[in-house]
Amino acid sequence: MPSKKNDRLSRVEKLVEKIAIEMRELREFQRETTEQIRELRELQKETDRQLKEAGEQIRELRESIRELRESQKKTDEQLRKTGEQTRKTEIQLCESDKKFNKVIDSWGIFVGDKVIPFAEEFLRKKGFSEISSCERLKVLERGETADYGPIIASRKGKIILLVSAKTHARSQDVDELLEDMRNFEFFMGDDYAGYTLCGAIAGMSFGEGVEKYAKRKGLIVFKVSGDTMRAEEPKKLKLIKISKINQK
User: Fold this and answer.
1) Mean of the pLDDT values across residues 201-224?
2) Is 177 helix (H, G, I), strand (E, B) or coil?
3) How far is CA 18 from CA 44, 221, 227, in A?
4) How would DSSP label each residue in 57-92?
5) Range 114-241: architecture per CATH
6) Above pLDDT 90, what percent of the chain?
7) In Å, how far are 24, 41, 47, 48 from 38, measured between CA atoms?
8) In this structure, are residues 204 and 224 in contact, taking their beta carbons and an 8 Å threshold?
């Protein structure tokens, strides 16, 4: 009988041990499951955070796109205005060209129809003959250039009248004519050695005080008077003797 009791006890102990092992395994599984659930929750939180950030980025992207579209509209408007301004500028330039050409045409008529004939007649009335004229002359001398015109000369009287013709004469034009007269011998000495040079400034209009300034410097003033011209002479005419023949 004791043997049977021992066998039953042994089976009960084994069963209890087995149950204890299964309980430990169950607790371990439960612990692992709890840890996995915790990790899953953390992962869910991270996912939610990333989704929130992604949503914020999408919102910012949409805002950037909206701002870009607004900027593009402004750029298009500026380009349109620039295009209109460019067209206006082109029209203004075209008008300026027309005005410039009109001034050039007026200057050409002024010089050809009024200044040169009047200057020639002016010298004739002074007793000079064999008069020739050149409307414009560009000279190159030893690498330097000069632009003259008109030049009225009397071969017999050995006199040269260098004229500066302007649509509107300024004091600066007077100074430039005086400088041209000083340099005339250097550029034109070979052609006019022995001649005497004098100067005249002709203008369709004159700046304030320019006529008096020109006469004070010894220059003749040719002025438009109605359909004709008249001359105003200085008290003392500036004369330059051309005596040097350039050695080339």
Assistant:
1) 94
2) helix
3) 38, 137, 139
4) HHHHHHHHHHHHHHHHHHHHHHHHHHHHHHHHHHHH
5) 3-Layer(aba) Sandwich (3.40)
6) 37
7) 21, 5, 14, 15
8) yes
